[in-house]
C-alpha cells in the first residue's frame, strides 16, 4: 500500500465516519476474523461501524467477540442497503473481485463511499480507491495487523481484536503449517498472544466443536474418497441427500478436502459438494507444491483463489461434474504425474 494512501486513510479516519466492512460470500475464519478485528478497532476509535456479511457464516466462528453484531445481507437487504448507501468508507476484506460479495455487488457498485480493499488473493481487480493487496501474506488477518502497524495503531489492539486476528491467521494457515506461514506470521501471532489472544481457547473453540452429525458426515466423505494414484489426485463427493441425512449446517464440511492431501503421494485434492437449492456443485480445491489450483479453478470451474487453495462451482449434475473433472485431469499430466 502506497504511503499516499496511508496518509489519506489516516486523515479520513481522524474524523468520525460511517463505516461498513464487507467480507466475502461464504465467509471463512479469515474473512470473519479480519472483519471483526478491524470492526473493534474502528468502533473503539469512535466510528459508526457495521460488518455486513453477504450470507451466514459457520457455527464454529459464532463465539468470536462481536460475531453477534454482524449483519447478514441475505434476509436483511433493505436495512443493509441503507447502511451501504450512507457509508463514508467501505472496507472490503479477504476478496479480490467485487463478484465475491454475492448479492451485495449491486448496492456496493452504486455506493459513493471511499473503498478500501485489504486482501491477500492474487490478481486484485481495481474497484477500490485504496488497494492493499499482498498475495505473499498468509491471511487478511495478518494484513489487518500490518495495516494497523502502518497507521501506528498497534497500541490500540485489545484482547478482542487480538482474538479475532489470531483466529483468522490460524484458520488460513492450517494452524501455521501452510507455505505462506513465515517468521513474520509467527512474530505477529506472538504479539497477538501478548496482547490477549488466548491461543489454547481459540484452537479449542474452532477445532473441538464438532457436532456428532458433523463427525459422521466426515465419515461419509471419507467413504466417498476416490484416488487417482497416477495423477496424484484424490477427490471426495457429498450429495445433497448425504448432507441432509446428517442435518448439514454451514461450515460442517470445512477442512474435509484436506484429508485427500493427507494420503501419501497425493498433491491435488478436491471436494465436490452438491447444493441443490442453488443448482450447483460447490468445489474446494487444494494442492501441494507448485500445482496451481487457482489456475485450474479459473480455467474450468468458474472460480479461483490461491496457488494451493481455491474454490469453484459447476452447474452440471454431480455425475457430469465428476466426468468433466476426470476428462480435464489428464491435460495436467505433466504437472501431476511424477
Ligand atoms: P474454500 O475452498 O475454503 O471455499 O476456498 C479456498 C480459497 O478459494 C479461499 O481463499 C476463497 O476465498 C477462494 N474461493 C473459494 N470459492 C471461490 C470462488 O468461487 N471464486 C474465487 N475467485 N475464489 C474462491
Ligand atoms: Mn483469507
Automatic annotation (TrEMBL):
Pfam families with a match to the protein in the record: DHH, DHHA1
One GO MF term: nucleic acid binding
Ranges of residues in domain DDH: 18-169
Domain of life according to the entry: Bacteria
Domain DHHA1: 246-324
InterPro entries in the cross-refs: DDH_dom, DHH_sf, DHHA1_dom, Oligoribo/pAp-PDE_c-di-AMP_PDE
Protein's name in the database: Bifunctional oligoribonuclease/PAP phosphatase NrnA
Native species: Antarcticibacterium flavum
Amino acid at each position: 500500500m502506497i504511503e499516499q494512501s496511508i496518509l489519506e486513510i489516516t486523515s479520513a479516519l481522524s474524523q468520525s465516519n460511517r463505516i461498513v466492512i464487507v467480507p466475502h460470500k461464504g465467509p471463512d475464519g479469515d474473512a470473519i476474523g479480519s472483519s471483526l478485528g478491524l470492526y473493534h478497532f474502528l468502533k473503539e476509535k469512535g466510528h459508526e461501524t457495521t460488518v455486513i456479511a453477504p450470507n451466514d457464516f459457520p457455527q464454529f466462528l459464532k463465539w468470536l467477540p462481536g460475531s453477534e453484531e454482524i449483519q447478514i445481507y441475505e434476509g436483511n437487504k433493505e436495512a443493509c442497503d441503507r447502511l451501504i448507501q450512507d457509508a463514508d468508507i467501505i472496507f472490503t476484506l479477504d476478496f479480490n473481485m467485487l463478484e465475491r460479495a454475492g448479492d451485495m455487488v449491486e448496492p456496493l457498485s452504486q455506493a459513493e463511499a471511499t473503498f478500501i480493499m485489504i486482501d491477500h488473493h492474487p490478481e486484485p481487480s481495481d474497484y477500490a480507491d485504496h488497494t492493499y493487496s499482498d498475495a505473499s501474506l498468509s491471511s487478511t488477518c495478518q494484513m489487518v495487523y500490518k495495516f494497523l502497524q502502518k497507521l501506528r495503531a498497534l497500541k490500540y489492539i485489545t484482547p478482542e481484536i487480538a482474538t479475532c486476528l489470531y483466529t483468522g491467521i490460524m484458520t488460513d494457515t492450517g494452524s501455521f503449517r501452510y507455505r505462506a506461514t513465515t517468521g513474520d506470521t509467527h512474530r505477529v501471532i506472538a504479539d497477538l498472544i501478548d496482547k490477549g489472544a488466548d491461543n489454547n481457547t481459540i484452537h479449542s473453540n474452532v477445532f473441538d466443536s464438532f457436532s456428532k452429525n458433523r463427525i459422521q458426515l466426515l465419515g461419509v466423505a471419507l467413504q466417498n474418497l476416490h484416488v487417482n494414484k497416477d495423477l496424484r489426485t484424490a477427490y471426495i463427493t457429498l450429495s445433497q441427500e448425504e448432507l441432509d441425512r446428517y442435518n448439514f449446517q454451514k461450515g460442517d464440511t470445512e477442512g474435509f478436502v484436506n484429508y485427500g492431501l493427507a494420503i501419501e503421494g497425493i498433491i491435488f485434492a478436491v471436494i465436490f459438494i452438491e447444493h441443490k437449492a442453488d443448482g450447483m456443485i460447490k468445489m474446494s480445491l487444494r494442492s501441494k507444491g507448485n500445482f496451481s489450483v487457482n489456475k485450474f479453478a479459473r480455467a474450468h470451474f468458474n472460480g479461483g483463489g490461491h496457488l494451493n487453495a481455491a474454490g469453484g462451482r459447476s452447474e452440471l449434475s454431480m455425475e457430469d461434474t465428476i466426468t468433466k473433472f476426470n476428462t480435464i485431469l489428464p491435460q495436467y499430466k505433466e504437472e501431476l504425474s511424477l
